[in-house]
Amino acid sequence: MKYLNELKKARWLSSFLFLIALFLVTGMVNPDFLTYSNIVTSFNGSVVFTLLAIGIAFVIMTGEIDVSIGAVMGLTATIAGQIAKRNGSILEMLVFAVLIGMLVGAMNGIGVSFFHVPSLIFTLGINGALRGLIYVVSGGKTTENFAGAFTKIGNQVLFAEVTIYLAIIVVIIAVIHLLLTKTKKGKYFIAVGDNPNGATLVGISVMKTKMLAYIICGIFAGVAGVVFASKYGQVNIVAGTGYEMSAIAACVLGGISLSGGLGNILGAAFGAVIMSSVSRMLVFIHLPSNFNNTLTGVMLLIIVVADALVQRHAVESARRKRLLSRTAAMDAKVGGTKK
Fold it and tell me: Closest Cα to residue 8, out of 268, 285, 271, 264?
């Protein structure tokens, strides 16, 4: 069991090794893929997915799910685009993004933790409502023609081809990793997902923890929308569609269990890089881009099945350990009686 626990803690390392393997295999097919410039470009291109993965990681660690993050991202990207068209500041965009993310996150948190609506159902409903709102805000048209300064920031190189967004996201990952692993409150998310009743007994509020997880998730999705608009220079009415599935896949690929109670932000980040690099890899191995969704779907299926097997193995190992302990206790008792 000790070995299994160590294996769980190191699952993020598996995603890192998987990422290296994907890069090496693609490099064997096309050596141009393994150039420094292309590798850094792959990491630069993963920023949006990484923000989404970090946010939803908090929710998944508590044992819940959120399929509204793609719509939150699409809405804040559209609003950011509208602000950029009138040459507004990026600070104004971020304020709107954070407020919208907090509001949607709070709504999801209340629906799931207070009214006990299944998270998939509730967040799916929120997703539909937000998609309708995106259509209203955008007028059913693509939001484009942003001010040059806004899109320039999105692709501004800080050093050695590393964009400013990538540098910021690395710092964010490091800070969150420390908070989740080194602080008492940071460990609440894992505790709630692992054993809600046990968490309650030791004084952890399950409802407040899940509420906070959804608010954090909403904020990251909102900020991801601003980054998306800045990087790509236009936002259509379906922006963000399907991103929630890729973010969930990134988390599971990074060792975050869909049943909660197990996770690591580093794994989610590496998983996000893998998911966002798939389409780029397809180009280098000369496969059509429409294989992207197929490959992503297959990867998600493999990941979910593997996660289920690991969880089943963990449960069976724990059950065997309890049986062995009871058997040993009974044998000791019988031996003592005979004496």
Answer: 264
What distance in Å separates the CA atoms of residue 125 and residue 127, rounded to the nearest whole number?
5
Q: Round to whole Å and give the CA distance between 54 and 51.
A: 5
Residue 10 confidence class, pLDDT cut points 50, 70, 90: low
Residue 80's closest CA among 226, 236, 219, 227? 226
* 315 alpha carbon, distance to own chain's centre: 25
| Domains present along the chain, CATH in parentheses | 2-338 (1.10.3470)
| Percent over 90 (pLDDT), the chain | 45
Question: In the predicted model, what is the mean pLDDT of residues 54-67?
Answer: 95
Phi first, then psi, for residue 159 (nearest 5°) are: -165, 150
Assigned token pair, 140: 């059913």
Amino acid of residue 302? I
| Band of residue 150 on the pLDDT scale cut at 50, 70, 90 | confident
